[in-house]
């Protein structure tokens, strides 16, 4: 039996849904049925149970993505599978195409070393707190940075405390004594050894990260590699990434040359020299550098979060490595895999044109305001009128909410979100928070249970009664 899908919708969305489906020309059969409510996003499982009297020969039912309630129980009652579609009906083509085979981003083969740069200035508890945060964001190894001419008397205790909590640890120092002590305390990795300090590797079990004896001297790196290979020791090499205008392009070429000379050695890239020292959003920088790592088989990076603008670098690197692994494994471009690295913009920010928004306005018969955005600006309307502006302040005099503080506050919040989304090119959906990719923990997005009903917002809740006056 061929598939026949029943699409449930509301009055306002029905014409758009029919148009989208006609343009899709899908291989499956379908029926569009509106349940007698105006806004499809307000649909609930209980409402469907009460109002749906005919399933029109469907083999499954698709409801709006924001439909609340227990769909599993509803499916059992109806005797048909019931599932949520995308939040925006204009995303249906992707839902039935690329969206059905969403790539797996659970896998990666690159390790993130997250450096606690100011470790000597933190106590043990402070180091552990930072390490836990890094681990939550995706770090695999906690790197203890030792500062020049700064005592770090608790370094060995810090290594042991981290190991006791199950962390892998590296010690990062220009002082050979620090490296020896760190290795003897149980560190897993040491940053960094040259051909002149290889003797340290003979005294500890830690895996050394090798750098050139002199900046850019790959021949010295070759000799260090040969020496450790002769001893059968594991190691990682780092040709050193330089900042822009201070050798950046040449340093990228060094990584390429190192891979050419040594096809199978493990390589590290310290990405912080670019993310920290370039005032640009770091998500794109991380994605580009990890793309180079993916092409060259570089499976270790050293990330830092010192500058305020780089405070999400570890989280970005974690997502970037997953996206790039998925792209490489599928032999495809790193597109349409995950949108978490796009914080400022989105692939399809304006699902409706102004003409389509105005067509929606013609169907509205109630006083509730709807807010939409298009390339032309922010649009707000109800049955009383349609208003557009680029600046939300121009809209306030037309809304008639001067005597309704709660409504005015609500519309102010929503119009501010809409303005931000319209100017940046982001998706805006009324009553939903803006999405900022992996940059922001959005509790409203992450903890919403689609099986539960959304509570009333604070502007709709009854104000608490004043405390009674108990004075005499």
Automatic annotation (TrEMBL):
Annotated signal peptide: none
Domain of life: Bacteria
Domain Pterin-binding: 93-325
One GO BP: pteridine-containing compound metabolic process
Annotated segments matching region Disordered: 441-472
InterPro entries: Dihydropteroate_synth-like_sf, DUF6513, Pterin-binding_dom
Protein name: Dihydropteroate synthase-related protein
Native organism: Methylomagnum ishizawai
């Amino acid at each position: 039996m061929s598939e026949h899908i029943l699409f449930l919708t509301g009055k306002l969305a029905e014409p758009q849904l029919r148009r989208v489906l006609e343009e899709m020309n899908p291989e499956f059969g379908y029926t569009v049925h509106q349940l007698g409510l105006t806004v499809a996003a307000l649909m609930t499982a209980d409402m469907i149970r009460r109002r749906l009297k005919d399933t029109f020969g469907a083999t499954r039912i698709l409801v709006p993505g924001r439909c609340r309630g227990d769909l599993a129980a509803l499916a059992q009652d109806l005797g048909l599978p019931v599932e949520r579609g995308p939040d925006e009906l204009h995303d249906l083509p992707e839902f039935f195409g690329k969206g059905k085979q969403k790539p797996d981003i659970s896998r990666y083969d690159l390790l993130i070393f997250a450096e606690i740069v100011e470790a000597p200035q933190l106590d043990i508890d402070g180091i552990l707190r930072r390490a836990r945060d890094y681990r939550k964001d995706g770090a695999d190894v906690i790197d203890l940075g030792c500062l020049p001419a700064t005592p770090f008397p608790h370094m060995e205790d810090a290594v042991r405390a981290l190991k006791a909590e199950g962390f892998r640890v590296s010690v990062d120092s220009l002082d050979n004594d620090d490296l020896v002590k760190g290795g003897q305390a149980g560190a897993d990795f040491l940053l960094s050894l040259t051909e002149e300090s290889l003797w340290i590797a003979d005294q500890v079990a830690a895996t050394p990260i090798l750098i050139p004896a002199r900046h850019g001297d790959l021949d010295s790196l070759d000799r260090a590699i040969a020496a450790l290979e002769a001893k059968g020791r594991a190691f990682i090499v780092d040709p050193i990434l330089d900042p822009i205008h201070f050798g950046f392009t040449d340093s990228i070429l060094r990584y390429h040359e190192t891979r050419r000379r040594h096809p199978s050695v493990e390589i590290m890239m310290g990405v912080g020299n670019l993310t920290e020292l370039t005032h640009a959003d770091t998500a794109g920088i991380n994605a580009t550098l990890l793309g180079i790592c993916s092409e060259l088989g570089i499976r270790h990076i050293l990330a830092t979060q010192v500058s305020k603008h780089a405070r999400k670098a570890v989280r970005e690197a974690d997502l970037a490595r997953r996206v790039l692994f998925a792209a490489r494994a599928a032999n495809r471009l790193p597109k349409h895999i995950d949108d978490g690295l796009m914080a400022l913009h989105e692939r399809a920010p304006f699902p409706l044109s102004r003409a389509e928004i105005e067509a929606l306005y013609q169907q509205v018969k109630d006083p509730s305001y709807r807010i939409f955005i298009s390339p032309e600006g922010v649009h707000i309307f109800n049955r009383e009128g349609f208003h557009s502006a680029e600046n939300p302040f121009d809209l306030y005099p037309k809304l008639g909410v001067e005597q309704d503080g709660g409504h005015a506050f609500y519309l102010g919040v929503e119009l501010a979100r809409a303005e931000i989304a319209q100017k940046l090119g982001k998706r805006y959906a009324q009553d939903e928070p803006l999405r900022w990719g992996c940059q922001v923990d959005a509790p409203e997005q992450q903890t919403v249970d689609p099986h539960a009903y959304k509570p009333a917002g604070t502007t709709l809740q009854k104000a608490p009664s004043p405390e009674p006056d108990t004075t005499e």
